[in-house]
């Protein structure tokens, strides 16, 4: 490990500390400005040319906006239609009516578990926000409830979505590890489901119950009003709950169909190409918005002009969130281009760990340092691929799962998901750290423990 590697690692660490200081100190700088300033500082500190710094910031922000920003905007539109039609209100009432206060986090975990099977973390969260806010808003009005209802309801959702995203195919991370290590989807998926269950329970309902009384988090009123105020009247033209639920779940169903098609159909199949197109997160969310607008508004003689104005207004509360997420993407890109990941790899060569632990460790360090779970998974899987090919005794599905778990650890300020949770729930840096950062670390560590436990048992298929 060279002195330059040490310099890179120290630069990455200092950059995060400076970012936090700019946001939480007396300066109280807006997160987007703080992120951009830190990006420039990292670029100069690591010897980048000025032109390359600007290019990396632009590329990182643009890539994140393309992958996440448009989907979040469409999710806000879908959430507004569901709220105005009364669908979210009735779903929240149904959950509260049939579930005790103590069981609400468990019910939300189950919903997020189902939603999270095909959906990326950020996409699943934006789809779940209307329901989270609606349930929490009703819950906080109860006199005997103490703490933040939004943390109580939201933490289980974050844990379930994170566990599914990092552990279970067809999410990109696990699939990438599977392809690189040349293992199979079936056993990895089964191991992933089994590991995800205790991880999401410990990181979700149990940790949520512990932290809720200690927090007072509440989202901005404009965002709450957008996702929870039902403006539909009680006439017979009000859409049925089944149609509303179908509208809410359509994007998830399209993504799930794509996932199943990838596993069942041969490459090059025309049907697979159709499923790939329809299951793309952006296309699936767009179709969900159009389907909801048609079934919940147009078919019921709704005001088209009013719908257009409403959808336009739905983007205002989330515009700031999208831009801050873009800043997080720029920070991630600058760290990646500075070769911080290479320094992490060189550092891991200095230590001897069992392969399953080493896979988790490399993925964790790469993800934490670069802000990209994908970089963590690709780097760890690529490094361990020769070892996987040379050691027939190594359980490759478990190695793929271990790498996926490692990529979830310590989601912080250089991750887009961190900023999405922080801004959506109106959290401070400390509150966001105590929620998404700690939750994903619990999920990641429990996942590793499950991998080590499974490794003591006969391999699936033996």
UniProtKB/TrEMBL annotation:
Q: Which residues cross the membrane?
A: 7-27, 33-53, 103-136, 148-168, 188-210, 241-261, 281-299, 396-414, 435-454
Cellular location(s): Cell membrane
User: What's a GO cellular component annotated to this UniProt protein?
Assistant: plasma membrane
Ribonucleoprotein is among the record's keywords: no
According to the UniProt entry, its GO molecular function terms are: gluconate transmembrane transporter activity
Recite the UniProt keywords alphabetically. Answer: Cell membrane, Membrane, Transmembrane, Transmembrane helix, Transport
- Principal localisation: membrane
Leader sequence range is none
The membrane topology term of the UniProt record is: Multi-pass membrane protein
* Superkingdom, natural source: Bacteria
Into which family does the record put it? Belongs to the GntP permease family.
- Please identify the protein, giving its name as recorded: Gluconate transporter
Q: What organism is listed for this UniProt entry? A: Comamonas piscis
């Amino acid at each position: 490990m060279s002195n330059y590697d040490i310099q890179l690692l120290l630069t990455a660490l200092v950059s995060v500390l400076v970012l936090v200081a700019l946001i939480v100190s007396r300066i109280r700088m807006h997160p987007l400005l703080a992120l951009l300033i830190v990006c420039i500082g990292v670029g100069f500190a690591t010897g980048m040319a000025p032109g390359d710094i600007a290019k990396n910031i632009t590329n990182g922000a643009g890539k994140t906006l393309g992958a996440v920003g448009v989907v979040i905007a469409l999710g806000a539109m879908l959430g507004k239609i569901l709220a105005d039609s009364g669908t979210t209100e009735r779903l929240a009432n149904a959950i509260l009516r049939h579930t005790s206060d103590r069981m609400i986090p468990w019910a939300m975990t189950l919903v997020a578990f189902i939603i999270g099977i095909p959906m990326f973390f950020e996409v699943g969260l934006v789809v779940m926000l209307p329901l989270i806010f609606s349930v929490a808003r009703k819950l906080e009005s109860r006199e005997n409830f103490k703490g933040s209802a939004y943390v109580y309801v939201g933490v289980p959702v974050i844990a379930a979505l994170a566990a599914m995203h990092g552990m279970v195919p067809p999410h990109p991370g696990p699939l990438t590890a599977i392809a690189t290590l040349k293992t199979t989807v079936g056993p990895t998926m089964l191991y992933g489901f089994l590991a995800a269950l205790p991880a999401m329970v410990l990181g979700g309902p149990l940790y949520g119950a512990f932290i809720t009384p200690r927090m007072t988090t509440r989202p901005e009123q404009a965002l709450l009003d957008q996702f929870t105020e039902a403006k539909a009247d009680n006439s017979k033209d009000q859409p049925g709950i089944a149609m509303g639920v179908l509208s809410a779940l359509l994007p998830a169903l399209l993504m799930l169909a794509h996932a199943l098609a990838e596993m069942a159909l041969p490459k090059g199949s025309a049907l697979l190409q159709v499923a790939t197109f329809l299951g793309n997160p952006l296309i699936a969310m767009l179709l969900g918005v159009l389907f909801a607008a048609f079934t919940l508004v147009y078919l019921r003689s709704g005001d088209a002009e009013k719908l257009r104005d409403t959808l336009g207004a739905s983007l205002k509360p989330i515009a700031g969130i999208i831009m801050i997420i873009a800043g997080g993407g720029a920070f991630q890109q600058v760290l990646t281009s500075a070769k911080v990941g290479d320094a992490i790899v060189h550092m891991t060569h200095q230590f001897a760990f069992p392969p399953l632990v080493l896979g988790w460790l490399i993925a964790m360090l790469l993800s934490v340092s670069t802000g990209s779970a994908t970089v963590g998974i690709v780097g760890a899987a690529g490094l361990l691929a020769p070892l996987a090919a040379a050691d027939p005794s190594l359980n490759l599905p478990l190695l793929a799962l271990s790498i996926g778990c490692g990529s979830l650890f310590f989601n912080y300020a250089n991750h887009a998901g961190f900023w999405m949770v922080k801004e959506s729930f109106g959290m401070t840096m400390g509150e966001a750290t105590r929620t998404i950062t700690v939750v994903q670390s619990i999920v990641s560590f429990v996942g590793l423990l499950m991998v080590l436990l499974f490794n003591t048992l006969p391999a699936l298929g033996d």
